[in-house]
Amino acid sequence: MYIYTNILKKYGSNYHIIYCTHPFWDWVLNNFRQTIVIPGNHEFYIGGDVGTIKNGCIVEIRSNVKGYYNTVVTVDDVDFILCTLWAFIQSENAFITQKNVYDFYQIAYNGRLLNPHVFNQAHQEAVTFLMNAVIVNGSKKIIVVSHHVPTELCKAEEFKKTVVLMEPLLPNCTNLFSTTKKITGFTDIRTETSLK
User: Fold this and answer.
1) Angle 132-138-139 from CA coordinates, rounded to 5°
2) For the chain, which end, N or C, has fewer CB atoms within 10 Å of the first or last residue's CB respectively?
3) Which residue has the higher pLDDT, 150 or 34?
C-alpha cells in the first residue's frame, strides 16, 4: 500500500479485488480522495482471465476506487504509470517453474490454464507498455507503480539474495530506468524507491 497525498494505491496480492462487496472498499471510499488498484498475479486466481483483460480501467470498485491494468493515471501534476509487469521466465526454467508455481494451476488465459510462453508474452506486453509510456510521457513528474520490480535498481536488499524461478525484468528495463530523467519515483508491492 502506498499513499500519495490523499491518494491510496494498492498493488497486487489483494485477493478481494474481485470481491467488490468487501467492506474494506467502503472504508477506502470514505477515507481517500482517490484509490488506484493495480492487480498482481494473485488477483487472477479467482476467476480472472488474463487473455480477456484490456489496458485501462478494468474494474470500478467504488466511485473513487478503480482497478487499472497497464495504463497512465494523472493525479494533480503527477503521472502514475500503472503496470502489473508480469515476471519473465527463462526458457531453461520453464518446465520446473510451471510445475512448481501455483499461477499455472490457477490463472486462465482465454479459458485455458496459463503456460510459460503466454506468461512471458504478458510480460513482454507489459514491458512494451511501460517503456512506451515512459518515453512518450510529457509530464514533469512520473511515478511507476507495478506488481513486480522492473529493475535491480529498485530491488529491496532482502530480495537480492533470494533464488527465484521467475526473473521479473528484462535487461533493457534497467537501461530505461537508469538513463531517463523523467521518473520521479518507483513503487512496487515490496518496496518504495526514489530514483533521484
Assistant:
1) 110
2) C
3) 34
